[in-house]
Amino acid sequence: MSGKVVDLFAGCGGLSLGLEQAGFETVFVNELHPIAMQTYLENRIHTSLNLTANHCFDILSLSQKPAELEALSRRLNKEHGDVDLVVGGPPCQGFSGIGHRRSFDLAKEDIPSNHLYREMARVVEAIAPKAFVFENVRGLLNSRWTPSGEKGEIWGDVQQTFRNLTVRKGRKSLQYAIRAQLVFAKDYGVAQNRPRIIMVGIREDVL
To answer: How far apart are CA 20 and CA 14, in angstroms?
Structure first.
């Protein structure tokens, strides 16, 4: 049986495609941009992802409604067993070089999309997957919330948010063992440099 994945901020499906090629099956997808979502779903036209219950556009419509998020968690676990992975690359424009220039004089703490990692964390906490994968641009590592802030403070907050997660499996309260590394696409057969920070969390009972 293939591993089951929830893909957040999925774009047109690059991360899902790689996971599918590795033997995983995406069972729920989130993507705000309607054209990107349309592309994602049309490339999976014969899957259950096209059912309204198995995709959503704005992650806030899920993460900010605890009852609906809990209902989704119960349904996914009932239909698929223990969900294997929640993966996501929250919007990175506020942390990239190009994105920084686009934001002009705004402090990063004032850009709503820069806080969406917290919504991913809420989904992870509700679904309690065996593992999660967080992906973002290299600029996140050195970003400050404000011009006078400390270099790297945003990355520190991101890591702490996920380290503080506690999930319930039966009677057990569990946390995630977390590791992060900067990786380069060129080291994996891709014809471009494309540095990315990857953080992986593994539920402590499956280590």
So the answer is: 10
